[in-house]
Design a protein that fits this description.
heterodimer; A: about 350 residues; alpha/beta; Rossmann fold; 8-stranded mixed beta sheet; 4-stranded antiparallel beta sheet; 12 strands; about 35% helix; about 20% strand; B: about 300 residues; mainly alpha; about 75% helix; about 0% strand; globular
């Protein structure tokens, strides 16, 4: 057993139990051109900073949601959290153990699983649903004998409102929502208590989204699941999240209890995002659109990455990266908020 | 199961395609004729005792002095050409099937590994394939065959010659399979179902075999069918050049080479009939392969 690393001091205000903790995690992708081309054109290596110095912790039985535009690094965090990618820098702890050593133990690896965004790509088209759902059961030897496995698969399918007879079919015979249910059944098959949900509803119709979200909440309450919930849809996040992290260009710019952030957003980016939510009670009111494009994460702007689009940016924002300041239970990384220019 | 196969898109496409039906029928007739040659051939060309020089150079039906017992005529030894063709097809088809099978096993394994592992392994394996593809495949087969035959002790050569040929032709064909499989594997390995298996810690070799392989094998069947034609041609070429199978196991290529000696002395049938059979066989197989490729291509549906 490797020695347990010291919990970082002053990084997280939460001292409660945590299932997953990320401490100053960064992940860079090497997007350089091939070696020979680089030599000929005298081009340096190019690194894409998908995730840059991100810290958060998730308490058991709660949902931590990450929101942000496409390309802000939320899916990379999802993949880091289950060990599909190894962090370039920083530590990810699962049950207070480094993720790599936790994943080396089947008993711990069993307790984390993932639900994917695209219900069409996440199920092997050549496998019957029974085999898809049974894969984790077989991998972790949670049941032996085909009758026993069949019974478990049947129970799992029933748990997501499908019938055990659906197991005989192939994935293409199901709709998107049903496929996502199969995906959830597979994720639950290893009897996990931590689920990473990477935009589980963004590929679904709105009416089906609600069903899947309610199913996920219901399962969370019944099985005591912990979710890391990735989404770009603020309405979905509002429905699901206990705590919320708002991501911009690989960094979490604001995080805290979801309720507090939705009630009183502080970071200018969060405010712009929340301002963009359609609201039936205020039809026709003037909105401040989020102007400009998301800058390239290969060459992020100096200082605060949000300054080219920020209405409150000043000279300091253009040169100095803002640190996280804590107010109550909410952490914000913004000079304007820290200086009180945000009124 | 049977009804499901009958009603599938592919089966429907097959039933309604005249080219597919005709070429499948032709291929079936030739394969049956080859497979059951010892029982249905009018003579046994390997039985030296039954040969008589009196019967030599009989012309095929439709010419003067032709006999019904030798519809395609006889050769210089008095061997029945039709029977020799039927026995020769056995060898040609056997070598063709086995060398394609060998190429599929090697090519699919290398393609899967290169595509799934990526990085330096991928680069190395694919550069080897690229280098080999710069040579004509018949040259590769010729070279492999020559090197192995020279390395074998003289006494073992004849017995092992057929395996050497299968190996040589198989080796000359594997890069096509490897490249196709690698390409599809690159696409499949980043799909979420592979991620789902990786999250629960399924070992890589198992992901490759049980998840990726079934999803990349479709195009292999098409190239395999087309490759069968190539392999049969390659074997015939090697045998025609005299470096293929020993004369004791005459394939279609060997028959064509023997007959070639009599082409200018007027006995054209000894070489033309094996040649026509070879053309028909490869044509049927290639048409089937083309049909399969089009039928499995979603853009042409």
């Amino acid at each position: 057993m490797p020695a347990q690393p010291e919990p970082p001091v002053g990084c997280m205000p939460m001292t409660k139990l945590k299932v997953l903790e990320a401490v100053a995690v960064s992940h860079y992708f090497d997007v350089s051109r091939p070696f020979l081309q680089r030599v000929f054109t005298r081009e340096p290596r190019r690194m894409l900073r998908a995730v840059d110095d991100v810290s958060f912790a998730i308490a058991p039985g709660t949902t931590f949601a990450l929101v942000g535009e496409s390309g802000c690094g939320k899916s990379t965090i999802a993949r880091l959290a289950v060990g599909l990618y190894a962090a370039t820098d920083g530590d990810i702890l699962f049950e207070n153990q480094p993720l790599s050593s936790a994943r080396a133990q089947p008993a711990l690896r069993r307790r984390m699983n993932m639900i994917f965004q695209d219900p069409y790509a996440s199920l092997n088209p050549r496998w019957r649903v029974t085999d898809i759902v049974a894969e984790p059961i077989r991998a972790f030897k949670l049941a032996t004998g085909s009758a026993d496995i069949q019974a478990r698969v049947g129970a799992l399918l029933a748990q997501v409102s499908l019938t055990p007879r659906d197991g005989e079919k192939y994935p293409h015979e199901f709709s998107g929502g049903q496929r996502q249910r199969i995906s959830i059944a597979r994720a639950l098959a290893s009897e996990p208590d931590f689920l990473v949900c990477d935009e589980p509803t963004s590929a679904l119709d709105v009416s089906v989204q609600a069903q899947i979200l309610n199913l996920m909440r219901d399962l969370q309450q019944r099985l005591g699941l912990t979710y890391l919930f990735i989404s770009h849809n603020l309405a979905v996040v509002r429905h699901m999240a206990d705590r919320l992290g708002v991501m911009y260009l690989g960094r979490i710019v604001e995080q805290g209890p979801a309720e507090a952030i939705f009630r009183a957003p502080r970071h200018p980016y969060t405010r712009l995002l929340l301002d963009a939510i359609p609201d039936l009670e205020q039809v026709g009111r003037a909105r401040t659109p989020v102007g400009g494009e998301l800058p390239s994460p290969i060459a992020p702007p100096p200082g605060c990455a949000f300054h080219p689009r920020c209405p409150l940016a000043n000279a300091r924002c253009r040169v100095e990266k803002p640190a996280h300041t804590t107010a109550g239970d909410v952490q914000v990384a913004c000079h304007a908020v820290a200086e009180g220019r945000d009124a | 199961m049977l009804a499901r196969t009958w009603n599938s898109d592919l089966a429907y496409n097959f039933r309604t395609s005249p080219v597919a039906l005709a070429s499948a029928a032709l291929a079936l007739i030739l394969i049956v004729a080859a497979a059951f040659a010892p029982w249905i051939a009018p003579h046994d060309p390997t039985d030296v005792a039954s040969l008589s020089l009196m019967d030599s150079f009989k012309p095929p039906l439709g010419m003067a002095d032709a006999e019904w017992s030798n519809p395609f005529g006889t050769d210089n030894q008095g061997r029945d050409v039709l029977s020799a063709i039927m026995f020769g097809m056995r060898i040609s088809l056997l070598v063709g099937f086995l060398s394609v099978l060998f190429a599929i096993v090697v090519g699919v394994a290398i393609g899967l590994l290169a595509g799934y592992a990526g990085g330096i392994i991928d680069t190395l394996l694919m550069r080897v394939a690229d280098v080999q593809l710069t040579f004509p495949s018949i040259l590769t087969a010729l070279l492999t065959d020559g090197v192995i035959t020279a390395a074998l002790p003289r006494t073992m050569r004849e017995g092992l010659q057929i395996y050497v040929i299968i190996f040589a032709i198989g080796i000359s064909l594997w890069p096509n399979f490897a490249r196709t499989v690698r390409g599809s594997t690159l696409v499949e390995r980043n799909k979420d179902y592979v991620m789902a298996a990786r999250v629960i810690g399924v070992p890589s070799w198992r992901i490759m075999l049980s998840h990726v392989l079934p999803n990349v094998i479709g195009p292999v069947m098409v190239i395999g069918t087309l490759g069968l034609g190539l392999a049969i041609i390659a074997e015939a070429t090697l045998s025609f050049l005299g470096v293929g199978l020993p004369p004791t196991q005459p394939s279609l290529g060997t028959l064509i080479r023997f007959g070639n000696d009599f082409l200018f002395s007027g006995q054209w049938w000894i070489t033309v009939f094996p040649g026509l059979t070879l053309i028909l066989m490869v044509l049927a197989i290639n048409l089937l392969g083309d049909w399969l490729r089009d039928a499995l291509n979603p853009r042409l549906r």
